[in-house]
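During the practical work, I worked with a single protein chain and the tokens that describe its fold, as given directly below.
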Amino acid sequence: TDIVTPRVSRQRRQSKEEKGTLLVRYCSPTKESPLMEAVYSAARANLRRLLTQHPAWTRKQYAQAVGMSQGWVKKWVKRLREAPPEDQAVLHSQSRARQHPPERISEAVVDRLLQLRDQPPEGLGRTPGPKALLSYLPRDVELAATGQRLPRSSRTISRLLREAGRIRQRLPHLQEPRERPAPMSQWQLDFKDASTVPADPFGKRQHVVEVLNTVDMGTSVLVWAQVRADFTAETTLQEVASLLRTHGRPQQLTFDRDVRFVSSPSGSDFPSALVRFCHCLGVAVRICDPHHPEQNGFVERYHRS
């Protein structure tokens, strides 16, 4: 005997060698599978039988009897009562896919659309976009008199404008390969929270312990990782000086606009002591532009950020 249970995802089969045991097949069907179609058709047939035998029942009672939701019962009670009692086709699922392609937009509507685009209505003062054209088209008296089908979404209008050349296609962004500098000649610096140290739930500091990572641009190798719980502008300068004493002097250092690196433009110590220190040693400093972390990409990649 086969007992099919459609709501279990695992597949398990008992041994056939033992006599008297049941063969249980577990499967994970989808709504479009023949198995689920048979299950739903049986539930609809059961619902039609209950409608005949117990016409005074409520939706809740029908739902409990067939094991479906009340919304499902409401939908199929309406369909079954509208269909003849002997109709078997009503028990099958009805696809929501479009049966016929939509009517195409006529050339007259497209021409009027392009005219509104090229010659904006008075008082608009700008070139109308798809949303503005969507609101202006139904107000056109000539189009309303013809009774032709109008676009009903801004996406359709965008497609028509793009096909007519009124909206320029965006060129694909081509990533140019970046030429690496010589090994250990250019470094990138950035701070990273120490994820193994939890933040104080009752404190105001979000960064309890931080790591100042230095990554070489020529080899993508971590040069040094300096860990402190009190990174300020002063302590950052001390750690950078220790980095240069230990690993030598590179040609260039790159870092973002953290105030501990570059200080505040409105402060009296701008440019920061770190920038002036690097210039005194003959180390070039490159400060990343705002909102462009890719300029500090090697250390950002090391942080997985």
Observations:
- Residues 34-91 form one domain.
